[in-house]
Amino acid sequence: MPLDKELLEIIVCPKCKGDLIYEEEKERLVCKNCSVYYPIREDIPILLIEEAKKLETQ
Fold first, then answer.
1. Any residues with CB less than 8 A from the CB of 44 and at least 6 apart, and which?
2. Where are the domains of the chain?
3. What is the pTM of this model?
């Protein structure tokens, strides 16, 4: 189930307070400023700084 649009409008990166980009197919929220993503598990965003994963550079 996709995340609620209202929730997506108000949540921000816990580290820099920047906008997060929802990647539904990868089940994650991406912060371009910090070059990390936060996983979504069982439809719950895990917005803990220690849970952030580095984005793969291409």
1. none
2. 5-54
3. 0.89
How far apart CA 49 and CA 5 sit, in angstroms, is: 22
Contacts of 5-9 with C-beta under 8 Å, sequence gap 24+, read 7/45
The second-level CATH assignment, the architecture, of 5-54 is Single Sheet (2.20)
User: What is the C-alpha separation between 49 and 15, in angstroms, rounded?
Assistant: 6
The Cα 57–Cα 41 span in angstroms is 23
51 vs 34: CA distance, rounded Å: 13
For position 45, what pLDDT does the model report?
95
